[in-house]
Amino acid sequence: MRPFETNTSFGSPAPRRGGSQRGRGRGRGGFTNNSVVFNNGRAQGGDIDMAIDGADGESTTEIEIRGWQGATVFDLVGFITRKCQITLQGAKAHGPVVRARIPTGKLEALLKWTGIRFAGDSLTFSVAGDNGAGTAPVGGSGGLSSNAESTITVLRKFLESRYSAENQLLNLTSMASDGYLQANGMFSSLTTSSKMFPAMMKVASMDLKAVESVSLASNQLDDVASVTTLSQTYPHLKNLSLADNNLTQWRNLDPFRGKFREIRELIMTGNPITSLPNYQSEMLRRFPSLKILDGVVVESIDLGCASASFNNSSNSFAVNIQKLPIATLAGFFETDEIQNIVMDFLGKFLHVYDNDRSQLQPLYDNLSQFSLAVNTTAARVSSGVQNWSAYIPLSRNLTRISSPAARVARVAVGERAILELMQRVPATRHDLSDPQKFAIEALTVHGLRAQGDTGIMLVVHGEFEEVPSGGTPNQQSMRRSFDRTILLLPVAETRSMLVVSDMLTIRAWAGAKAWTGR
């Protein structure tokens, strides 16, 4: 069984633990280097549009958008989807104009949004002119047949030739060099090329239901926006190859963010992006369920329920918490299931927070928030001098900060900003071997991101040692107390957790008598 005709282990069983973690090759041959451009262009392609429309019976209209250049096309698409409740199809920049298609029935509603503010400018929406830049009459020299049915037939035959039912593999490698597609004019113009993939996915959604692996290798992709319809057609994809393309920056992968929640193996070899710093952690942040990257087993933090690389049964918070005496007032858990989830999460979370905070980044996304506040007036056990100089510049104590701008500025939004703020907080050590130092509560909450969401509110009170710059606790270590409220949203597809909000308050050490009763 050969999921891909390549020397990588793409789609193969996970490599065995121990020894080399390199995946063993299966099959023969390798990925070719021919290419196809999906994502630019001017020229015809009318029957491709007809094929897209005709595949699901819904007509679309090409529109033009101006005033968007203060941000990216990806940001624009997301903004219009959220604000106008309209999805742009095949959005591409042509100088100062973004062209896209929308359902014809949504056209009137979209035009009414002309003038809306976006990225410091006002957007204007208009129907694309019949003879405007970037368009050409259908049926010109070298173009496709005006018969949309023949276009669908061409795509159907191509897909059939590239599909392996035995391996549930759709091999879309090097499409521009495919003689059948070339003979039928699929690359006769750049616009035709850019519209081919959405049409192909429409046909695939009707004909090829059982697909677990897809190869888009060697297609000269410099951005996955042009092939984002793959995630709509096969949201449960297990294996994907993007090898030997031209992906250079993280934003080139952003259109796939939040997609493919069951992806198991990904091949990125041959892309410049693989040489960027924190490559593996950045890929795990975008694809949390990933198990094999470029043929190498990767260890995700997977704090929902699965094992992590730092698992240590002798230091398991979830095990030690069972030792609490029956009379303790140290916590409340709405259900046993919630207790098991949050105790497993918390033990792993605090361990990573103490040892390598950069590994926490995959738990947050671009909407997650983190803030820190210092409470210098809270009750304390010791009357000694407290040095808060490392925390005050980061603190968002609303009793001390009244400026709206300052309040907003001290909330870290998005995984990158959150990691940067966390790295500025002094190093810590939480003694997870003694659960009596912590009071924990957890209960369900609703509507964290959407109306139907059901998440968990985790509230932790406890203590830690602030580690000196040397990195090892000693007699100069400062004990602090803390309160932390974390809103968690379980991601069922990946059996992991998304941190929606993380609020940390630090105060002088006050001990644990409030909940131990001693």
Report on the architecture of this protein.
The protein has 13 helices and 21 strands. The strands form four sheets. Strands 14, 15, 16, 17, 18, 19, 20 and 21 form an eight-stranded mixed β-sheet that branches. Strands 7-8-9-10-11-12-13 form a seven-stranded mixed β-sheet. Strands 2-3-1-6 form a four-stranded antiparallel β-sheet, sandwiched between helices. The longest helix has 20 residues, at 336-355. Helices cover 24% and strands 21% of the residues. It folds into three domains: 46-127, 2-Layer Sandwich (Alpha-Beta Plaits), CATH 3.30.70; 148-297, Leucine-rich repeat, LRR (right-handed beta-alpha superhelix) (Alpha-Beta Horseshoe); 313-516, Nuclear Transport Factor 2, Chain: A.
Provide a brief overview of the structure.
The protein is built from 13 helices and 21 strands. It is an alpha/beta fold and 518 residues long.
* Mean pLDDT level: 76
Known CATH architecture of the largest domain: Roll
Tell the overall outline: elongated
Domain count: the total is: 3
For the termini, the CA-CA separation is 64 Å
